[in-house]
Amino acid sequence: MAVYIVKKVWYTKFIKDTVCDIASSFINGVRMTTSKDKLRELRQCAGMTQEDVAEQLDISSQTVSKWERELSYPDIFLLADISDILSISIDEMMGKE
């Protein structure tokens, strides 16, 4: 049982690290298919939930969810704060290299 748990923990960490590596390769030059994928990947690689991002921006988690589903878009005045929270430049966040 202990071996299974160790393998499962390692596998879970491996998958998360792989997803973050893939996301960072997209961020560093290759454009992702949609901005909603980019925002979600950046947030997940930062180890944050939608609630965490929302709390730091003083907005609701439903708003972050809408951004990720492209039902709405962040206010232009929030872009600098979002880029700081996710450790990415505004240009990279907007798909420019």
What secondary-structure arrangement, pairings included, does this model have?
Elements: H1 2-27, H2 35-45, H3 50-57, H4 61-68, H5 79-86, H6 90-93
Task: Give a quick precis of the structure.
Helices cover 67% and strands 0% of the residues. With 97 residues, the chain is mainly alpha-helical. The protein is globular, with a radius of gyration of 15 Å.
Derived from helix and strand composition plus strand pairing, the structural class reads mainly alpha
Oligomer: single chain
Amino- and carboxy-terminal Cα gap: 47 Å
Strand content: under 5%
Rg estimate, integer Å: 15 Å
Number of strands: 0
The count of helical stretches stands at 6
Question: What would the average pLDDT be, to the nearest integer?
Answer: 75
Topology as H/E string?
A: HHHHHH
Characterization of this structure:
The chain is 67% helix and 0% strand. The protein has 97 residues and is mainly alpha-helical. Helix 1 crosses helix 2 (35-45) and helix 3 (50-57) packs across helix 4. It is globular, with a radius of gyration of 15 Å. The chain starts with a helix and ends with a helix.
Which tags fit this structure?
single chain, 97 residues, mainly alpha, 6 helices
